[in-house]
Design a protein that fits this description.
With about 190 residues, this protein is an alpha+beta fold. Helices cover about 35% and strands about 20% of the residues. It has one domain. It is built from three helices and seven strands, in the order H-E-H-H-E-E-E-E-E-E.
Length: about 190
């Protein structure tokens, strides 16, 4: 009868443990690298949806003002929360908004809340959108990474990441995305 060795222990070798840890580390690394890109992509998708909402609202504005003979968009108007709001709280529209066409457009057409004095139109990261409406020949300034300004160019259509002159009642909307350049959408 053969004698059994009772002192031998079964377990993992150091190489097996290191290999499993290395594979787990690679999986965690891939998740942590991919997660911010996925979140950035989701925010950019929400921004594209917001720009589609602006497009629809501008068409609605033109339709609503067609009977008055003033169905054209304002030729020049801009609204910047940082410079227009003295108490730096854009949750309510200041009185100056009443005389500003861009702010009035935001107030009347872009807010989803029931209180017309509250600005609810925000970027997915929580910053309030600014609005700049100008003719097609007005250049869009060199855009920094994120400046939260929606550029509407009247009498224009999209041409890549820029605008080209078109019929007077047409317009193009440009917005800087977080991860994919400038998004341009027009009413055509």
């Amino acid at each position: 009868m053969a004698k059994l060795n009772t002192n031998s222990k079964q377990g993992f070798t150091i190489i097996e443990v290191v290999l499993v840890l290395a594979i787990a580390g690679l999986i965690f690394l891939m998740v942590f690298v991919a997660l911010p890109a996925l979140q950035r992509s989701q925010r950019d998708t929400a921004r594209r949806n917001d720009m589609s909402r602006v497009d629809t609202s501008l068409i609605q504005y033109q339709t609503n003002n067609q009977d008055t003979g003033n169905g054209d968009l304002p030729t020049t108007a801009s609204w910047d929360w940082k410079t227009q709001d003295d108490d730096n709280d854009p949750s309510t529209f200041p009185d100056a908004c009443k005389s500003n066409k861009a702010c009035s457009f935001l107030q009347r057409y872009m807010n989803s809340g029931t209180d017309s004095d509250t600005n609810t139109f925000k970027d997915p990261d929580g910053t309030y959108y600014n609005l700049d409406i100008a003719p097609a020949d007005t250049p869009v300034p060199e855009l920094p990474a994120m400046n939260y300004t929606i550029y509407v160019r009247t009498g224009a259509k999209c041409s890549g990441e820029d605008v080209a002159t078109d019929a007077a009642r047409h317009f193009a909307i440009l917005y800087r995305l977080e991860g994919a350049g400038i998004y341009c959408i027009d009413d055509q």
